[in-house]
């Protein structure tokens, strides 16, 4: 996909901007107040959406909990302190089962979509491509095949607008600060790995090593265990924006859902409040870094 690189058309005096697709709000952008300090950071939460348009046509009888089981529920709300500290935030509104905003738009599943040929990646073969074939808990999402036109309409109305907006935010930040750093926030099932946080920097290629080390130090300072790149090294957005040689960096952060979520009900658990406060401290510390000093981060 070709991204636009022109500066974004957001009004400086407007803190909240909702960009609409033909199916409704596909994402929301929260801009910092003018009084906030400038940082090269951009926050994104591509899997926290909960909207499933009527044209999805999922299999009849599929429970709401299964439909939503792949979502990074509530992640966007956990990092909304970012704009107060100078970091714009883009949050998905489209549910991940409808379309995965952190997948390559070419990753269409030939097992699900007509007039599509391979090869495809391992995640797509497993049922979790751009338009997933399975729910997060492994159930079929459809009892039909999707047309190529349906798939392309979803890309046009959800995936392309999101990534165009993210590209504009990154370009604007780069133009202002000489550098743009994407922090892509996600969550992982409590059973996924024996750590509270996984940092994905595509094995040291998508950002400066100092950033990865600083984030690890901040999370370990909370008493949380941190893993690097396994099993999550970074998705599509990290791949696209992880170009340190061009002044664009990206890192993916996976938070264990046990830190904040009752996975059965997808509602806040008893630890949610403490986790939100802890993340606010991490965000504040990260935004206070001396980003103008190249020897730092």
From TrEMBL:
InterPro entries named in the record: N-FG_amidohydro
Entry-linked SUPFAM superfamilies: Zn-dependent exopeptidases (SSF53187)
Pfam families for this protein: FGase
Top-level division of the source organism's lineage: Bacteria
Name recorded for this polypeptide: N-formylglutamate deformylase
Taxonomic placement: Bacteria, Pseudomonadati, Pseudomonadota, Alphaproteobacteria, Caulobacterales
